[in-house]
Amino acid sequence: MLATIPSATLLGVEGRQVAVEVHVSSGLPGFTLVGHPDPVCREARDRVRAALLSSGLPWPMKRVTVNLAPGMLRKVGPGLDLPIAVGLLVATGQLEPEAVAGCAFLGELGLDGSLRRVPGIVPLVGALEARAVVVPMECVAEAAVVGRVRVRAAGRLSELVSCLRGHDPWPDPPPPPTVDGPPPPPRPDLADVRGQPVGRVALEISAAGGHHLLLSGPPGAGKTMLARRLPGLLPPLEGDDALAATTIRSAAGQALPPAGLVVDPPFRAPHHGASAVALIGGGTAWMRPGEISQAHLGVLFLDEMAEFPRMVLDALRQPLEEGVVRVSRARASVTFPARFLLVGATNPCPCGEAGPEGRCRCTDGARNRYHQRLSGPLLDRFDLRVVVARPDVADLLGGAAGESTAVVAARVAAARERARSRGVACNAQLPASVLDQVAPLAPSALAVLEHQLRVGALSGRGLHRVRRVARTIADLAGAGTLIDEHHVCLALGLRADVVPVEVAA
Amino acid sequence: MTGPAREPAAGMAPGLPAEAYAAALAGLPAMGHRRLVAALRRWSPEEAWRHVVGGRADEDPGLADLWCSAAAEVDVDGLWRRHLHAGAGLLWFGSSGYPGVLADDHQPPGVLFHRGDPSALAGRRVGIVGTRQCTRYGREMAHELGRDLAASGVRVVSGLAAGVDGAAHAGALAAGAAPPIAVVGSGVDVVYPRRNSQLWADVAEAGLLLSEAPLGAAPEAWRFPVRNRVIAALSEVVVVVESHARGGSKYTVEAAADRSRTVMAVPGSVRSPASAYTNALLADGCAPARDATDILVALGLSTAGPGPAPADSRPAPGPVEAGVLGALGWEPASLEGVVLRCGLTPGETMVALSHLQRDGWATTRHGWWERCAHG
Q1: B 78-137: CB under 8 A from A
Q2: Which one of 3.40.50.1820, 1.20.58.220, 3.40.1190.20, 3.40.50.450 gives the CATH number of domain B117-299?
Q3: Nearest CA in chain A to B242
Q4: Which of B137, B350, B358 to mutate to test the interface with A (most CBs of A within 10 A)?
Q5: What confidence tens digit (pLDDT) does each residue in A7-54 have?
Q6: Interface contact A498-B133, CB threshold 8 A
Q7: What is the DSSP letter of A73?
Q8: ipTM value for the complex
Q9: Residue A430 in domain
Q10: CB A471 within 8 A of CB A428
């Protein structure tokens, strides 16, 4: 007898439909699994057999063939355990075909017959065409994010079978997990930052315009402290953006917030030991989204940026430009979304003290090697490059608290709203062709830019970037269409050549 | 005497100048300036080379053997042609052109390779030295002192390194008067640091480039303190512009003190680490060098100085700009520092700074703002 059960598998951050076909016939007892399973998926046979027997269900002494269609698609992970078990029960006549009609199944089986969560429930459920889906009890909130599909939950295979047979009602989904343990720490607030007026302004502009930000300064200047306050300034994710962020986090196998949907912009801070694959995505076992995709619509923070291998950093250039990253491997080629706000922090030299005071004790060679990690094209992608100096002692100890995150976030939201009225999510995405129209320059502003171009301090591409940043500054100030000298000067001042080719000459 | 007497090496062709043999001697291993001077006190360069080739150049048989086997590899004729090709000449201890001030020194160099005209040494000489990692202030002071001294006919002696040394030479060249004298640590054909290559060429063209190191010698760290004693010996006054507490200028100052040369120091901010050593020198009783006149007085030259500086042609800053310029002060400051000091918003500060930059009152470098002394 033949049974076909709909299910899905992961490819990158997308789900792909899989039809699990189970054929049971007379012949020498045996179990064959075909259809390009990966090693984990291939082990389903032993898990399914033990789970059936533990649940008091007989294992057929017949010839069983399981095919996972389409055959070309590689099936990853243990999520097909449950559909294989259900298909087997239908094919052996232990379940009526009508009982499972229109219902898809996702989940890993334990040897005791329990259902376990699998990564990527959001994209997997999103890919299904079935009316209903059965998922492990722990995944209900995650599966419900999709909304379109009716979600049923089961804790154990035996319970599931009796529900499908109509003996028992479907169990209620578990209540949203109560807060056990300490509440999540509050997000860092901008009010904690004392002094640092320029760093705060740069942070605000970066959040409002989506401009990549590079902070350079000695150890202890507060680079990391500033960067960690950036996600709080970004507006919460809505609609498709929230679903996209949720999908990626689910596909990366990470826990979702209790409400299911990811609304806080993600903040990823990979260590500088991260490999190119960890940052970009890919991997041998399955195509996993990398750090840059997990930071999609949020912030990717690279602390100690010059400590990253240069190859890893240069791999960021194409995603920064296109907002997606295409990972091609022998087995598959996957496109991951990767539209993130890049925040880099670096010391000016290995000892961290390089600067005009002449405190640096590094050798010329060590300093040059350090700076060569940051290639010119990568540095060029940072619209905002700011030197952060150690704050004044008086500011640290006394000093009035600055504006709080809430106040600044309100201005950022208003500025983003103005950017949206121009048809882009943020000003960093303004095409050069519309700059004259949306960011016309006042004569005084034009004079400043002309002088900068004439002395060679600004290139043609740099000019466009300065104009976009100036547009954001004007938006934050609530100014009109015309870009003023103030806006241009501040944009130029936040564009320092922070990484010197030579410090002392 | 070890072993049978050897045939003269192939390079012992007749008609080679004494300089060729001096160059060959200087290139021998373990041939420091003391041994070289000792040999040249006893013999002419040609005789000394003959002793080396014969294995009789030193009482220590190990050293004599070492030199003997090294000399067998040397083609004196080819070596000398390489010098001629590189435009390098040579002064050896005892030769007629050898500077008298060095001949009387207690640690004279055995040979001095040179590019340029050795007659540049004739005249009053002042050494200007300092750190490679100088501040803008140090660079400007070195440049001004070099320029004004050269304009008064004083030869500027320095090391052509990055930072203060190079700035002093650049200043001396800018005056276009007295020729600059550079004593370098590497071979005269090995430019170090590379970014100073134009300055090397200009100094060799307008003045004199000296080195104790043979042609092709790399800028090894031990050569620089040794080189510093030559700078001290050649200078009547040594001026330290900027130096960290443990900088290499200390060697020059100690060598100058050994030779009873006057040491002067340019005062700096007590907060600037780059002025730590110069300020310590002043505290120890060194005379301050505030400008070229101070140095000219120390030399006993006219106190008239180089004349008044040309009038400032920069447009006067406006009231806001003047306030920001005052807040900027004379030490480098980050934009943040200026903003905090002048009390304006970052945007207003940047407008003022960009006006100051346009008019030449301030300049920015790697995210730091600095005030310019002159346009």
Answers
A1: 131-136
A2: 3.40.50.450
A3: A358
A4: B350
A5: 999 988 899 999 999 999 998 999 999 999 999 999 999 999 999 999
A6: no
A7: S
A8: 0.77
A9: no
A10: no
